[in-house]
Amino acid sequence: MLGKTAGGLFWMSRYLERAENTARLLETGQRMALTRTKNSAEEWGSVLKTAGVLDGYHTKYDEISKDNAVDWVLRDADNPSSIKSVIKHARYNARLVRTALTHDVWSAVNSTWMQIDEAMKRRVNERDLPATLELIRQQAALVRGATLGTMLRNDIFDFTRIGTFVERADNTGRILDVKYYVLLPTAFSVGSSLDNIQWESILRSVGAGGGYRMTHGEKTRPSDIARFLILDQRMPRSLHFCCRKIQENLSYLKKDYGFAGPSCEASNALYEKYLDQKISDIFEFGLHEYIQDFLTDLGNLSRQIEIDYRFYE
């Protein structure tokens, strides 16, 4: 496979995953703002920070408001990470690699762009926001279903999956860092009285509420939530699950190409360093420091994958 094709598949998947993750963040931010009318600006600031677009927002706006924050994250052309922007990028990459995709996958990506573009011709008002966010998540699920249901399990599929799980791990890590560090800055606070609504917001941000309750019941304990989102092997958005999938798909590429670049070894090292340990050890080390180190190494792994497979050749 040409490096540019591999890169197009990788980034198409990353952008689609980012759009869905950002939609979940906005949905959670809206719920939290409704329950905390006095501190709604703080909650929207948290959404912007988690999405990695806070600095860009402040280049355009002096103060944080719900309407401006939602528009910035949802559709502002000045924000390269807005949902509309990343779906546009996803379609662009899909067009570049169209011959590598099945008809169903290309149609799903193209349909996603057309529907989102139409829905975001103008600012989305508060009444229409839930339906717009639901549309984004439905379209992301449609593309994912077409990919899983029609793509051969070959190198094309592997690059799409690696892109998906690199982006997903990055998203889960950033949510944990922003939310958890604010609520529980030191290991000495474990077991103290915490705001359960805030903890529920963390689970909602990654679509993990139902899975958590099936595993741990109704009580939202900080250590259980952190363990679920970091170390649970069955939770499809946990750091453990994502890193395992990256490892697996890189190993499949190794078999296909007879080549194991530094990225293969780096993915194994990432797992061994961060996910082969107990949650108590993570708390003792410091969750903020743990997540920051993880995100740095994940970013390095992503760049190494691009180098190994010559995405820009």
> How many alpha or pi helices?
15
Estimate the helix proportion, in percent: over 70%
Number of E-state strands: 0
Proportion in β-strands:
under 5%
Could you report the average pLDDT, rounded to the nearest whole number? 90
| Largest β-sheet summary | none
Query: What structural class do helix, strand and pairing data support?
Result: mainly alpha
**Measured distance between first and last alpha carbons:** 11 Å
The H/E string reads HHHHHHHHHHHHHHH
Radius of gyration: 19 Å
Q: Would you mind describing this structure in some detail?
A:
The chain has 313 residues and is an all-alpha fold. It has 15 helices and no strands. It starts with a helix and ends in a 5-residue tail after the last helix.
Please sum up the structure shown.
Helices cover 73% and strands 0% of the residues. It has 15 helices and no strands. It has helices at residues 3-35, 40-50, 54-60, 66-74, 83-96, 103-119, 129-150, 155-183, 196-205, 209-216, 222-230, 239-257, 262-274, 279-285, 287-308.
Layout of secondary structure:
Layout: H1 3-35, H2 40-50, H3 54-60, H4 66-74, H5 83-96, H6 103-119, H7 129-150, H8 155-183, H9 196-205, H10 209-216, H11 222-230, H12 239-257, H13 262-274, H14 279-285, H15 287-308
